[in-house]
Amino acid sequence: MGQKADNKDIIEGQSSDGIDRRGFLKCMAWAGTGIVWTMGAGIPTSSLFGAARNKAEKGAGFTFVQISDSHIGFDKPANTDVNATLQAAMDKIKGISSQPDFIIHTGDLTHLSKPSEFDTLDQLLKGAGKEVVYVPGEHDIIDNGQQFLDRYGKDPQGNKKKGNGWFSFDHKGVHFVGLVNVANLKPGGMGSLGHEQLEWLEDDLKGKSHSTPLVVFAHIPLWAVYLQWGWGTDDSAQALSYMKKFGSVTVLNGHIHQIMQKSEGNVSFHTAMSTAFPQPAPGSAPSPGPMKVPAEKLRDVLGVTDVNYVMGNHHLAVVDSTLSGNAPEGYKADSSTGSSSSGSETTVKIDNFSFNPTPIKVKAGTKVVWKNGDDVPHNVESTQHRFSSPVLDTGEKFEFMFQDPGQYSYFCKLHPKMTGKVIVSQA
Q1: What's the predicted TM-score (pTM) here?
Q2: From CA 348, how far away is CA 145, in angstroms rounded?
Q3: Eight-class DSSP state of 299
């Protein structure tokens, strides 16, 4: 947001829990405001980190922790040591006074789905000494998700997960549902659950009492955070319709690398910070992607989420904390413009989560070269199945020779809001 919160933002109009609603909404664009959310009968209330958390812990039935977007393997200037910041998150978890029963990781465990990245992640998470429950992010299924399923394809009870990895389990009176909304991304679309998973979800929830607290978690948000960047799920409304009967529903997501919260009736939505790097607030930059902040401020914009279930009251208290323990300022993202060349070889630059230029007009016999200038991987996928690139990391290229006249649409499978077109005319 590029601005600090004044004291008046936190003081004016305070409610009985000490939080100014207008100031609070400003703060929610930050990552790491240190706010506790307690759900009671579907109505969330907020309070400051310290005292409210202790109050919740006195009657807590159990605690679990959410982490997200570790991106093991990422080594760009936004954070050249993501292993260290994930380790800092593990240390923070070990320091929680009321130790969690387990950890939920809401996706993008790795950056490029490499075996070595999964191995490193596993070693780092072992340090917490807790069971970890996983759903994949789009960066975890670059190989179509087989490696993710081979490693994490069973639920906490040891049962094989369904489809692309969705599952549910019960823990001390709370029903947990892990959804996968990154496996069937379409050109220009957002996250997607798909018909098969939605049918399974409806059936899974049918037998549950309306008084059962429900925790649903997936990678991409199940509410429309920012459609222009694909920060939402196309068919989430149908999924949420199955949850209307429940008095307490908490939806946890990652993907956007910052705290965003809202409530709709009985449902409280909460997106988590990353342990790797921040992303800009919606619409505050030309595109999403790794956001560079001063090195001394990095741990102000990375963190973990601590969730307490209060036995008998069906309350969930959600506590976000940064790795540094500070409330961070807002930062603006760096941006740059792309360029292209002409002739028998034409370059399309992948930059700021876009293909530039597009559409591009070439003559038959022209080679088009796509070069990734972003700090995150992308690919180039023909919607007509004419060409498909491997995942391109920063600086990597893909080329294709267009021999026949026609119009060729394409997109990025990892980030389907990125679309482009090549128009080929006679030589």
Answers
A1: 0.76
A2: 28
A3: G
